[in-house]
Amino acid sequence: MQKKIPQRQCMGCRERMDKRELIRVVRTTDGQVQLDFSGKVNGRGAYICPKADCLKKARKSKALDRSLEVTIPEEVYDRLEKEIEVTNRG
């Protein structure tokens, strides 16, 4: 029997995809917001596709802010942009 692959919804395009294909943004238990590439950091998580368009949509609609119930700092968005560039280049 095949192992079930966890699915998550992108906050930009709202499509469901494999968890491993998405970038996780997490609000830790102490209230900090960071990117989580391991998928194991404790806290509330939200996911986004590694596509510039999805990030733009999520940023404009404040979908990540609502999902994590906190204002996302600009540094996190900047880091997400860099990660998406690297992912799409490689």
Description:
The chain has 90 residues and is an alpha+beta fold. It is 36% helix and 22% strand. The protein contains three helices and five strands; from the N terminus they run E-E-E-E-E-H-H-H. It has helices spanning 52-61, 63-68, 74-89, and strands spanning 7-9, 16-18, 23-27, 33-36, 44-48. The strands form two sheets. A three-stranded antiparallel β-sheet has the order 4-3-5. Strand 3 (23-27) and strand 4 form a beta hairpin. The chain starts with 6 loop residues before the first strand and ends with a helix.
Helix content: 25-40%
Low-pLDDT residue intervals, each spanning 5 or more residues: none
Number of strands: 5
- Approximate strand percentage: 15-25%
Topology pattern, helix = H, strand = E: EEEEEHHH
Q: How many H/I helices?
A: 3
Major sheet description: 3 strands, antiparallel
Distance linking N and C termini: 33 Å
**Strand numbers in spatial order across the main sheet:** 4-3-5
Shape: globular
Integer average pLDDT:
95
Structural class: alpha+beta
Cα-atom radius of gyration: 13 Å
